[in-house]
Amino acid sequence: MEKYSLLQLAKHALSGHRHWPPAWRSPEPKQSYDVVIIGAGGHGLASAYYLAKKHGISNVAVLEKGWLGGGNTGRNTTVVRSNYFYPQSTHFFEHSLKLYESLSRELNYNVMLSQGGVLTLGHSRHDMEILERWSNSLQLQGVDAEMMTTEQIRRHTPLLDTSRAARYPIWGGFIQHRGGVARHDAVAWAYARGADDRGVDIIQNCQVTGIRTSAGRVQGVETGRGYIRADKVAIAVAGHSSTVAAMAGLKLPIVSQSLQAVVSEPVKPCLNGVVLSGLVHAYVSQSDRGEILIGGGTDRYPSYGQRGNLPLVEETLAATLNLFPRFSRLKLMRQWAGTVDISPDSSPIIGKTPVAGLYISGGWGTGGFKAIPAGGETLAHTIASDRPHPLIEAFGLQRFVDGALIDEGAAAGVAH
Ligand code: FAD
Ligand code: PYC
User: What CATH code is carried by the domain that includes residue 123?
Assistant: First the structure.
């Protein structure tokens, strides 16, 4: 890995940043690889990185139809946390959060993890009872969670309307102090550089158009740049999981929907961490640049359009202004959307598939950014050993046959 002395850094800065070497190569695809990963989002790149780093498998290609990190990994609102409800999920997401806590060091790249806390608001007695049950369950599983009174919330986030006259009165809430945000592009770039350093070929502008199988085994992939042979292929394409899996004859229980977000003009630091309200379907944080970042639920119909619709933005903003009346004076700068793949129980689908040698990492829905380190590590283990990693055993496709669903809809953070 390229390392710079202070002198070299100063030279690059003074030369107008003109002579930096590229952080990863742009190789031509080879005719065959040991492993092909479809999709250079966080999950595909992290899986490639851990395959090379932990399993010594570096004859790997990551094929990306656009540019790396240009899917949901570069479009999300960067919330990381591990406060799910069921033990299978909390163990997995807690492991991911722990990996995030040492990721900058692991990848020698500042992913700007900022653990300002994730605060979930309660607006009724019933909300509070549910939050208490949730928080107790987390504590029993060794995950940090703390109930907060309205007065504690007022001190923590003074801009929230905590008055009794509020449109959505705040009865209290619960916080995960170790939750927060990380820089999404940096996560993709860091894994890309780490994988490339270890010999992985990241091939952008290379769309997979078909998956060849024979006698129930994967053979390779058809791409816009020719056929590539591989005994093992992994699908990590977020919003397009169903269409790509269908290339191998698989029908996934997934619906693709748009999820959008907006940011305001930048203002001075005024908000700690992330504030979420399940009742009004809105969540708010402040970026390191000072923008107020606001997100809501998914659009209410399936779509592959990376646009989102205006009525939902209006609804989300109206709700946010009820919670934070002072934000009414902010000007919005940008709106965008991504296509998220949602499974019936709002939990991921990760592991082996009925086609031998074909693996999947999908169904991350509205919450897969926080899962990138653990998703990559466990998928790499599964590909290398052809056995599901213990942390993801419960998240395989078989659960839709057995009925062993892990319903995390209420812990998803956003309505869908
Ligand atoms: P992606 O990053 O989407 O990567 C998949 C890649 O596959 C894409 O680059 C795509 O171009 C490529 N691809 C698709 N089809 C093909 C093909 N045929 N051939 C080759 N390449 C292909 N999660 C959180 O944890 N916290 C949040 O705060 C959060 N907020 C979100 C807010 C928004 C607005 C959105 C849209 C999502 C949010 N998410 C959040 C969800 C999170 O972004 C995703 O779950 C996660 O990024 C999925 O990562 P991925 O690597 O699987 O997919
Ligand atoms: O998964 O925590 C989450 C999340 C928050 C906003 C969007 N996703």
Answer: 3.30.9.10
